[in-house]
Structure formats: C-alpha cells, structure tokens
Amino acid sequence: MTMGMTSSRGRESGRFRARDLSAPWRHVDVTLLVVVGVIVVLGSAMVYSATRKMADPSGFVVRQGLFVVLGIGLMCLVSLIDYRRIADWWQILYALSIALLLGVMTPLGAVVNGSRGWYRFGPFSMQPAEFAKLAAIISVATYLGSSDRVDLRRLAVALGLLGVPAAMVLVQPDLGSALVFIVIALGMLVVAGVRMRHLVVLVALGAVAVFAILTSGTLDQYQKDRLTSFVTPNGQSYNVDQAQKAIGSGGLTGYGYMNGPQTRGGYVPEQETDFIFTVAGEELGFVGAGGLVVLLGVLVWRIWRNAQLAADALGTLICVGIMSMFLFHIFENIGMTLGIMPVTGIPLPFVSYGGSSLMTSFTAVGLVQSVHMHRYT
C-alpha cells in the first residue's frame, strides 16, 4: 500500500512538474528585459540632453515617455500570445503593412527629410516602414519554417515577400530601410539552410542593385551625397564632421551629462534621432559610449540565444530576423556617426527619439520573449 501511494504521488508530482514547465510565465528572459530597460533609460536621458535647448524640450521627453509606455504594453501583450498563433495571421499582417506603405505615396502621406514615408497625426508621426520590417520577418519565418529544405521555388517566394516592401520603401526614397530588408533576408536565409552558391549570387545581385540605385535617378543628389560622404567628402559631410568632433572631444569619461559643448550648442544635426550616439560619446566619453555598445551587444546576444533555444524552426527564424534587424540598425547608426558607414537615417534601437522605431523595437522583443516563453507549450 505504501509503495502504491508513493508511485501515485510520483506520478502526481510529475504531472505538476510538467504543468509548471509549460507555464509561459516561468520562462521569461529576465536578462533581455533588464538590458532593454537600462538601454531605454539611457536613451531617454540622451534624448532629453539633445533636445533641452529646443523650443519645446519637454514635449520631446513627454512624447518619448508615451512611446515607451505604449511600447511596453505592446511588448507584454505580444509576449503573452503564442508566437505560432501570431504567425497564423501572417498574411493579414503582411497585407496590412503593404497597404500602409502604399498609403504614404498618396496625399495621406507626409514628406520628412525628403522621404515620403510618413503619416502625420498632429504632433505625432508614424513611419510604416518600421512595422513592415516586422511583418516581413513574421511572414518569411512562417513560410520558410513550414519546410525542412529551401529549394529555388521557396527561395524565390521568400525573396518576393521581402523584396516587395524593400522596393516600396526605396521608392519613397528610403535606401536605409531598404538595406535593412536585405540584411534581414541574408540572416534568415542563411539560418534557413539556403545553399551557399545561391547566397553568393544574391549578394552579388544586391551589390549591383545598390550601385544601380546610386547611379539612377531614384535618389536626389543630396541623398546620394549623404550616402557617399564617408568615402568622398562633400557638402553633406558636415553632419559627420560635427558628429566626429562631438565623440572625439568626449575623451575617456566625457564632459559630464548635459555638459557637452557640441550638444549644448546644437551643432550636430538630427542629434535626437539619427546622431543620438554622439550625445553618449561627448557627455559620457569612451566609458559611457562603450558601455552603451556593450548593452546593445548583450541585447543581440540574448536574441541569438533565444533563437538557439526555440522549439521549432519558426521560432528560430523569427528571432534571427529580429536579431539581423537590430544588428544592422546598431552597426549602421553608430558607424555613420563615426564616419565609417554612409548616412542613411537609421535610428538606434531603444535610444533614438521616435515612436515608430520604439514601438516596433518593443514589439520585436515581445516576439522574442514569446518564442522563449512558449517553447515548452
């Protein structure tokens, strides 16, 4: 009788353990959440420092705070939903993103910095290209994750899913976002198992396409100058020159928060968005800017780790797509402030001012959390 009771208790205990193991809330990636939180706090502080001399400095901070709150809400909501259920709606999400990209080319769209890629709602604006990146990642991950091998037909469809929004943002014109789609494609296709010779051909075709765009009439001359200023000095290199001066003058520990002369004088254009990293370099020095880079590196590492732990190919591909997106944003944004990458207007995730970028980034982290939290269900 004692042995029977022991056996029964063992089975019951096993059932409780299995139930506990499958409880999503037990598998939250706390490290990822903490890193995101610290980066957001630092980013908000940098935005305040960059905008405090403007006509409405409090407005920037209030709006950024609102974007953070909304973004956290989206992150929590998405993380609680099984990513496989979200993937079931990929066709609707993709179609909606394409519709939004089409809409900006109509009178409903607004021109910002020479690119017709925005919607205006009073003091707020929305850039649908940011959301299209996430929709494309979910769509391609769902399509490629449904098969064990990627033949030419599946490769062509995946490229089409990424190529359509890339071409649409290029027409706006927004070469920076188009490049993000290319990097996302490379990352996801490599992990999906595309043959190396196909990847080599795709990379070569991509290089040819970029060259053709730069030599065509798709971009205005000032946009071409911005993209080539890191190779050939021109009138558009002023932004980069000021950014390099700000970062270089910071030295080891910087001038101190809100004490950077370049930042206080407003010499760095678009400092709260594209060139936000210059605030960290000037006011916090090599130590502070380096610390921010380390935090961004941990963010990328945790996403890669979650890709490895995913329960299926769908989860892995979603994480890899998001990691590729973040990695290019980080490398390109910091690189252009240092003068080693072209100026494309790509924001630094969780740091730059902007609602579209922030909410997309939070939603992306929510998807990664969903993959991690639901890997036992």
Share of residues in helices: 55-70%
What general outline do the C-alpha atoms trace? globular
Structural class: mainly alpha
The oligomeric state of the chains shown is single chain
The largest sheet is: 3 strands, antiparallel
Strand content: under 5%
**What do the pLDDT scores average to?**
84
The low-confidence runs, each spanning 5 or more residues with pLDDT under 50, are: 1-19
Characterization of the model:
It is a single chain. The chain has helices at residues 2-22, 30-51, 57-80, 83-87, 90-103, 128-145, 152-171, 175-192, 196-214, 221-228, 238-249, 261-265, 277-283, 285-309, 313-338, 355-373; strands spanning 109-112, 115-121, 124-126. It has one domain (28-373). A hairpin with a 2-residue loop joins strand 2 (115-121) and strand 3. The model is unreliable at 1-19 (pLDDT under 50). By secondary structure, it is mostly helical. It has 16 helices and 3 strands. Helix content is 70%, strand content 4%. A 3-stranded antiparallel sheet has the order 1-2-3, with no helix packed on it. Helix 6 (128-145) packs antiparallel against helix 7 (152-171) and helix 7 (152-171) runs antiparallel to helix 8.
Summarize the SSE layout with pairings:
Layout: H1 2-22, H2 30-51, H3 57-80, H4 83-87, H5 90-103, E1 109-112, E2 115-121, E3 124-126, H6 128-145, H7 152-171, H8 175-192, H9 196-214, H10 221-228, H11 238-249, H12 261-265, H13 277-283, H14 285-309, H15 313-338, H16 355-373
Antiparallel strand pairs: 1-2, 2-3
Helix pairs in contact: 2-3, 2-14, 3-16, 5-6, 5-7, 6-7, 6-8, 6-15, 6-16, 7-8, 8-9, 8-15, 11-13, 13-14, 14-15, 14-16, 15-16
